[in-house]
User: Fold these one by one.
Assistant:
Number 1:
Amino acid sequence: MDIVDRAKNLILTPAAEWDKIAGETHTVQGLYTGWIMILAAIPAIAAFVGFSIVGTGAFGFSYRVPVMSGIAHAITSYLLSLAMVYVFALVIDALSPTFGGQKDFAQAFKVAAFAPVASWLAGAFSILPALSILGLLGLYSLYLLYLGLPRLMKTPQEKALPYTVVVILVGIVLSAIVATLSAFTMPGRPGGF
């Protein structure tokens, strides 16, 4: 699997790429080492560079997160995002029968691994804090999730939208937990450096 082509195809021709992914065999370890660990590093590294090296500011004032705090935050957010993919796969797999789909952890893990590609790539905008608002382009991952769930989890098309909405709501809760935990490594926060 070529990581650049896979990412490009998921962004530009997602339905065809999901159909291709559905027929592929992947291991959890293989997806982590060949895809997730690489792409999940993009937002963590970009945020470190953006907020600790470049800095942010307005009206003549600028602020940079201290380097050690920035490194701690990058490592924490990176590790938590790796864990979140696995938990997200468990949620996708557990909810599938509720929406008429098949319970299949391997397929659920593929959805959890490939759907966030847009948000991981959009995390690159954090390298320049003034452009970090463009990270909203990562919301395209929600559409990728909507396309991937029925194809891989064999959910009937009429239940694809409710399934996607429930998975997104669980994802929001998981993201809030990750954000809260990673905030503890930032200066000025309880438990921060």
Note: The longest strand covers residues 56-58.
Number 2:
Amino acid sequence: MSPVLRMAAKGRCFKNVSFETSAFSPTQIPESDIPEIAFAGRSNVGKSSVLNRLFGTRKMVKVSSRPGFTKSLNFFTVDGRFRCVDLPGYGYAKVPPRERERWLRLTDAYLRGGRDIRAVVCLLDMRRHPDQLDAGLFSYLRELGVAAVAVINKADKVAQPRRKRAVEAITALLPPLRHPVFTISARTGEGFEELSYFLCSLVGSAG
């Protein structure tokens, strides 16, 4: 673990998490008064499971068998000091085009709202190479000047001897990033200690 993460490990990370509100339209987005970390990814990348693992619960974020279930911006307050924001998933073909457009407008309003967004966690699947939609997310965030943190989920789905090669192949397709790439498994909890401490260090909630 790096010196920064060792220092962060002394603090409290993702304690006292509470659901704050859901925003289905830009007018429902709450005022920005504390730092925020947003979470984005394809509709089947396991975003809800990742958030529940970070929060230390199985019930805080709804996990659905139907990809594309998240239809709003969902705000969670962590220890009263920062927020985690669950963004609608992307790339699910069965969602009507009009609904996809609404999600895009809602996400865009959030990201362009002048908020204190410390980073957007961009979730990827270890079994799949990033495609045009994934690349578009990173490009979009770069244009907005919002930091992206690449997090590769579902490590448990790939045999240990193949993981390094899979991570290298995915990383090679990503743009230059200011933060390290993390490898995790929402099912087993692999990689979550380091990820949680790193995210808390971004918002100054550790130490």
Note: The domain at 3-202 is CATH 3.40.50.300 (Rossmann fold).
Number 3:
Amino acid sequence: MGEVQVQALRGVDLDLLPGEFVVLLGPSGSGKSTLLNILGGLDAPSSGTVRYAGQELHLDNDASMTQYRRAHIGFVFQFYNLIPSLTARENVALVTEIADKPMTPEEALSLVGLGQRMDHFPTQMSGGEQQRVAIARAVAKRPQVLLCDEPTGALDVQTGVLVLEVIARVNQELGTTTVVITHNAVIAEMADRVIYFGDGVVARIERNAHKKPAAELRW
């Protein structure tokens, strides 16, 4: 940034295991979102490597990274990024039409508990329902990795629990490696592993032997 150098991440060395549920926990500016964007092929690090299924990713090749994101990665963001002129079914179909072996939009929406809301537009849905549509869209292509950046940040507590239950269901039923960024330490109780960030470095990693279902979380 001009004469100012900002080190978003410094010396992060991390393995994610197939099917695990990982929470990235830390204050704003600690590097969590940068790491998530690198894992998802949205950003390229200034040094270092990223490997997926044992193969090094070509981070400087736009076509290769587009194919990586399309084939393997699902994204869920804090704000739902739904197209307002399309129904829930049509928003999910945008992904299923370009995936190799997708679920149908109906299957994906049923998985997140919206089987009766498929033909509703985003403006006819609550925030939690819109976020569940966004999750359905992300998982409809059956991604091996689901990356969630503050998926409950714009929701009230009760609705946030419903959304977390959906993410946990996707992790358990599809075996999707799931990474969730949050500021909320309570959500860490759901995880297999919790990775604590501070100042662009991994401060510590904790394995959770007694993880809780979302319904038992208390904010």
Note: The first strand starts at residue 21 and ends at 25.
